[in-house]
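Researcher: Please translate sequence to structure tokens.
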Amino acid sequence: MAETTVQGDEPMSDELDDLIDDPDLLRPAPQAWRARTAVEMIVSGVLGLITSFVLSIEAWQLAADPNAVFACDLNSVISCGKVAREWQAQLLGFPNAFLGILFETAVLAVSVAILAGVRFPRWYMRLVEALYTIGLLFALWLFAQSYFVINALCPWCLLITVTTILVWAGLTRINVRDGVIPAPAWARRFVASGNDWFVTAGVILLIAAMIVVKYGASLVA
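Model: Translation complete:
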């Protein structure tokens, strides 16, 4: 089999040899396919950015008035203030929302460029993937802390968790499809057909189910 390259800077792995009968998957994804995923990432990223700004404003309000009450302080379970007063909300010494603004702005810039037809070098997309994976793990860690330790939920934080999952899924979809992330042939077929969306939806539904099972009627009490 002749050596094939993706984005012109590195040979593809021999593990893709069984795609010889499916040559379309040996090339980078068509722009129309990439654009659809980019739009999904942009919508999720914008929601995440707005949410990060809201959380940042609340952090400033809380710094000025430690007893501040927010509109999302509904009960003992749904309480932005309760979560914001815990040390996990400022893990690095400043509000976590500031990191959200940084990550969402960066990935939005990449998403808009992809929508415009830009194809970044493999090393750059791997760097973006690595950085946003850190963001995803951080968001999931914060959810776990809120769920298991703080025993309170911040609606804005939950929205950030969901949008981070959606953006990461879109970014990973593109990187697997384009061969940026080494993956077996079945994985490239899986994302090319859009089946990874079922996995993403399953993760979000699992989080929702965990919340309902643990808190139940307390969510609205």
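Researcher: Any highlights?
Model: Residues 29-219 form a domain with the de novo design (two linked rop proteins) fold (CATH 1.20.1440.130).
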